[in-house]
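chain below, 267 aa
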Amino acid sequence: MSVLTYQQINNKKTMNKTIETILQHRSIRKFTSEKVSKEDLDLILRCACNGSTMGNMQLFSIIVSTDKQMMEKAAPLHFNQPIATNAPLMLTFCADLHRFNRYCEFRGAATDCYSNLQSYQWAVTDAIIAAQNACVAAESLGLGICWLGTITYQVDKFIELLQLPKNVIPVACISIGHPDEQPELTDKLPVEAMIHQEVYQDYSEYDINKLYKGKEAHPNTLKILEENKLDNLAQVFTERRYTKKDNEFFAEVLKKALQDQDFLAKE
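prediction:
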């Protein structure tokens, strides 16, 4: 399959602002002190709430945080990353069945249909689509964003901090502000690494070597390998960044939170 490079796309007269914004995405971790205007925030939230959604139920909610004291309370749960407090705006996206259950309650409909893993999957998908729409909207407005994956590590504590009711659980957190840096674009796998025609086509060792060659030779990777004293990037992920021990621990935290929030039956 032939996939256009960024340069080829950039040369096409059909290139538009949205496509350019997506292709120029980079994570921003340093922001100026300038606040995000109410007008920009309203546009971001409107775009977030206008994405595709399961059955048009919109099974998500967004917690808007601009209060520095609230950010400081959340910072330890984000492992005290500077980005958790130096952004003027944080959006936390939650899978939310609670609101729809309340709607059913007040309309005399069944209220026990959606306390299950299937419905959780619907709501997570809705929330992630909303989060991505918000990211694209923010970057289209010239703002910078950074995705904080730490929201899922201590999900039980975020539920308490954000006072989330049953059938609501946080799944994504985005920091937004005016960029105070212009980092290089993150090195990515070639598009063909993720694309399959009609059915999934497994990867041979030759395929893996070809697809990861550029990433493994990238200066960022070489620097990471030197810092970690490891042979390859796969080892960095499995032995340093996301170890089996840590993954299994946080999986249990998530499992218990799903049970407590009535998405999974308690054992």
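The beta strands are 60-65, 89-96, 144-147, 168-177. The longest helix spans residues 117-140.
thats it, cya
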